Amino acid sequence: MSINEIDMLLNSMASYLNKKLEFQQRNDVLMIGIHTGGVWVAERLHAMLKLTAPLGHLNIAFYRDDFSRIGLHPHVKPSSLPFEVENRHIILVDDVLHTGRTIRAALNEIFDYGRPASVTLAVLIERNGRELPIQPDVIGCSLCLRDKHIKLCGPDPLYLEYKNPT
């Protein structure tokens, strides 16, 4: 996928989110990106939507269900949520939705900060292989991949990398 195609996906996502927020009469939403690719996507969507609240960054390393098996990466940065999530409408952004485990971990961490009024899930790429019943509300593109991994690289420019599993 080219840089222009990713930009088109982001524009489409921003347009859909704008319409969705207008319909729901929500003008006070918060946006949180999941480290790292989700933050890159969220930074662009945040600017496109002209949101005034600061962008939150979520690092779900401590919330992963495989934490005890794989351990902690030595360069883990803490999450940064510079706002109260209690009773707020949140747009949670990630780059690739595959198994659903990253989103589950992100929701667990968000709820440790408080109980949001709602969470809207926006993902750049939704792919097959779900292991948990988690579905996005806003999708840039859906892909069906067999025996391939997909990763968003960036931050500038954003591009997708496909590779065989190791």
Distance between the termini: 22 Å
| Number of separate helices | 4
Radius of gyration: 15 Å
Tell me the helix content: 25-40%
Based on the coordinates given, report the CATH architecture: 3-Layer(aba) Sandwich
Number of strands: 7
> According to CATH, what is the class?
Alpha Beta
Structural class: alpha/beta
Molecular shape: globular
Overall description:
The protein is of the alpha/beta class and 166 residues long. The chain has one domain (3-163): Rossmann fold, CATH 3.40.50. It is 31% helix and 26% strand. The protein is built from four helices and seven strands; from the N terminus they run H-E-H-E-H-E-H-E-E-E-E. The protein has helices at 3-23, 37-49, 67-70, 101-113; strands at 30-34, 56-58, 89-97, 118-127, 138-143, 149-153, 159-163. A five-stranded parallel β-sheet has the order 2-1-3-4-5. Strand 1, helix 2 and strand 2 (56-58) form a beta-alpha-beta unit. The chain is globular. The model has no long low-confidence stretch (mean pLDDT 91).
